[in-house]
Amino acid sequence: MSNLLDIQALSLGFRTEKGIAKVLDRIDISVKPGEIVGLVGESGCGKSTLARAILGTLPEGQTEINSGHIRLDGVDMLSGGKAAEHLRGRVVTFVPQDPFASFNPLFRIGTQIQDLMRFKAPRDGAGSFGRSRKADEASAIAMLDAVQLPQPKAILAKYPHQLSGGQRQRVMIAMALLPQPRMIIADEPTTALDVTVQAQILGLLRRLAVERGVSVLFTTHDLGAAWEICDRIVVMYAGQTAEIAPREQFFGDPRHPYTRMLLDSLPSPGRDPVGIPGGVPSPLKAPDGCRFNPRCPRATDICHESRPALTTGSDGHAVACHHPWLAKAEGAHV
Amino acid sequence: MSDSDNPAILEVDNLARHFPVRGFLNRQVGSLRALDNVSFAVEPGEILGIVGESGCGKSTLGKTLMGIHEPSEGEVRMLGERIASPGQKRAARIRARLQYVYQDPGASLDPRWTLRRSLHEPLIIHTDWPKEKREEKVREIVKAVGLPVEHLDLYPHEISGGQQRRVGLARILVLGPELVIFDEPTSGLDVSVQATVLRLFRDLKSEFDLTYLFISHDLAVVQSICDRVIVMYLGRIVEIGRTAEVFAAPRHPYTQALLSAAPVIGGPRVTENFSLQGEPPDPSNVPSGCRFRTRCQYATSECADIDPELDDEDGHGVACLRWRELSV
């Protein structure tokens, strides 16, 4: 099956007063139709920038694209143009971290959904003039019902501040699904939510994506949430792809030293969390070679000189490291 | 309540905190019951965790203990001395012994003061030590939190966020407190940083003989660091006990749901059979009887009538009418 999203060797930076911040450095990621891919990394690793690059919403004047391409459904999203614009909001939609900031506080939920449908959603009701508002409302209600919001009709008449955080995120997911997209980019959609609400939202997102065959690119810094929902996991560190693996292999047999240290940092009873000394390098002066080398216990001279290529094994487990762990870890996480 | 011979360092008795809800012309139209009937004791040297979802009253509890809010009912005693009750003014010397750590302790540093001045300030307020003695103490604490002494001449913007956090902690420790209340100390941190922060907390605790009250919504962190844990729901304690016991065999239906909602790496996907629906009700309009009954799958008509008290068995208390029959 060909890839729905295909990103190859993407490097981009932002022009700042202090020079160019190289935020992404030759990123390779692909997403197959119907697949849920987790994009995991700590703050500052470039995962949100990548999500915005796919959507084509990076600040135009400041962004410098150095190499690579992003193809969504065969269309180049970086060059812009009508074709890319047509896909945005229709074929690929977005679920933000903070839904409150994405609603207009002055308009009712129903009005905002209707605006979205007028421009982006496919027509399914036959109206005398263009589309029918009644049919729009009916499909909006059906969708709010699908995201398990009680009394969807009453929700349409409410303002964003009248909903709770979990309800707002459900409405956001409904709005992301209404255009019948083939891909949803969810940027930390449960970070602001409580754990019981998170479980409900993650379950909903996974169920709807599987039922409708929608691909999801799910960025998160929460490894537990990634385990919960993803089929495949990509780890990024300081703008570089560190490791890509199917879920079980990722947690059971991590090969990149960074991935291993990240998993060892998770709190668990009876084990002292290890942590990673040092901090994420500034994109303004990123280290040469592998960007993890200043913090890596396995680093040697070659790690300072050349950037390890992402090499994929026969099992679909890819790692970019000169000295990957090969044997199964003692005390592995699965 | 306590099962050891040590006298409790902090005792909380029937504590309640209600906030008035104001309507037209500032008339009181209702009351938001953020805390109700909260009783527990903190033993010296332990780390007592307080978990619950947003709006359950855990931060209100921390602030009421600290004296930022005045209790509406009940009282708080520290080492046998009453430190908070309705209408009571708080003595300054209590504040030195009971310290409160905000989410980001570094954010409370004055950007125009050197770190030395920020660290001297609490000692100037609370002691009459000469300058040399203060400086000695400040240096000792700065070393203990893992910062070079040369940093004392720097301003907050010249050091990293992690170091600011350490200075914030140092500022709390110079007064030699006995009990430290942490309010969500690890939320918003990446796991690699969180691990180092947790280790620092643990090292400081053993070095300075501290007792911690650790408020968090992160179950994994609480499980890894706390000796005992309190689970709160809508202003009430629903379960209290040793961490290992509560996590291994939760007795209250809410605790069971809360624990089952947290993803376990390597475990089955919890989202596929997660049963708890909806979100907690509005705390200004709490359900009668057991506050969890509206979302509880085991609720009976009795639960609407009787507000369950904490039922303590072997130091593991639970506020549920039916926990005995459900645990069979």
From TrEMBL, chain A:
Keyword DNA repair tagged: no
Subcellular location: Cell inner membrane
SMART domains in the cross-refs: AAA (SM00382)
Domain ABC transporter: 7-263
GO MF terms held by the record: ATP binding
The entry's keywords: ATP-binding, Cell inner membrane, Cell membrane, Membrane, Nucleotide-binding, Translocase, Transport
Entry keyword annotation includes Thylakoid: no
PROSITE patterns, per database record: ABC_TRANSPORTER_1 (PS00211), ABC_TRANSPORTER_2 (PS50893)
Pfam families recorded: ABC_tran, oligo_HPY
Topological relation to the membrane, as annotated: Peripheral membrane protein
Entry similarity comment: Belongs to the ABC transporter superfamily.
Name the UniProt record assigns to this protein: Peptide/nickel transport system ATP-binding protein/oligopeptide transport system ATP-binding protein
UniProtKB/TrEMBL annotation, chain B:
Domain ABC transporter: 10-259
Pfam families reported in the protein's UniProt record: ABC_tran, oligo_HPY
PANTHER family, sorted: D,D-DIPEPTIDE TRANSPORT ATP-BINDING PROTEIN DDPF-RELATED, TRANSPORT ATP-BINDING PROTEIN
Subcellular compartments: Cell inner membrane
The UniProt record lists the keyword ATP-binding: yes
Family, similarity comment: Belongs to the ABC transporter superfamily.
Gene3D superfamilies for this protein: P-loop containing nucleotide triphosphate hydrolases
Name recorded for this polypeptide: Peptide/nickel transport system ATP-binding protein/oligopeptide transport system ATP-binding protein
GO function term, MF aspect, one: ATP binding
Keywords recorded for this protein, A-Z: ATP-binding, Nucleotide-binding, Transport
Membrane topology qualifier: Peripheral membrane protein
Signal sequence extent: none
Keyword flag Nucleotide-binding: yes
Domain of life assignment: Bacteria
Principal subcellular localisation of the protein: membrane
